[in-house]
Amino acid sequence: MSTRAEGAIGALYPFLDTRPTDVDAVLAAVARSTAEKAGEIVALRESLVAEHGQRLVDCARRCAAAFHAGGTLFTFGNGGSSTDAQDLAQLFLHPPKAARPLPAISLTHDVALITALSNDVGFEVVFARQLAAFGRAGDIAVGLSTSGGSNNVLRAFEEAARRGMLTVGIAGYDGGRMAESEVIDHLFVVPSASVHRVQEAQTTVYHVLWELTQQALADSR
Predict the structure, then answer these.
(1) pTM of the model
(2) What is the tens place of the pLDDT at every residue in 194-203?
C-alpha cells in the first residue's frame, strides 16, 4: 500500500511519499531549483555593491576609528542571526591568516546568561542588559535581524545609543522597524522576501565590512 506525505511535510520531505516516482524527473527538478537559487543569490549580492558599497566604506572607517581608540565590537541576533552574530565576532577576534585580531564579543554566546535574563527579566532585554553591563562609549554594536523587527535587537540598539556606541544594523525585507529607528548609525538592508537569500547575503555584507575595516586600519598606520 502506497502512502503520500501531504502539505508542508510533503513539500519538505518528498521522499516520504512511497508511491512510484520518476527519479530522473525529480533529479532534474532539483537541479533546476538549485540553479535558480544560485542565480538569485548571485544577483542579490551583486545588487548590494551599488546599494551599499560606499556606505560600507564609510561604516568601516568609523569601525576602524573605534578599534583604534580601544573600542570593542558587540554582536547580537536571534535564531539564524545569532549564529551569524557569533560568526561575525569570531571573524574579528580570530581572523584568517595574517589579518589583525580585534576585540569582539557575541552576546548570544553565553547560554546561561541568556536563559537567566529571559527567565528572570524578559527575553526582550537579553542583549540590552549585556550592553548596559559591558558597553562603553566608543564601542561598536552590530545587530542582525532578517525581519528588522526583533524587539530585543531594537532594545539593544537603544541601549547602545544611550551609551554613545557606534550602532550598525543588518536587516532584510524592507528593513522593518530597524529602518524606522533613529538610533542606528549605519543600516544595511538586503532587499529580499526570502529568509534564506537574506541570510546568505547578510554574510556577504558583514564579511565585506570586516575586510574594509581591516583595510582602513592598515591605511591608518
Answers:
(1) 0.81
(2) 787 888 888 8
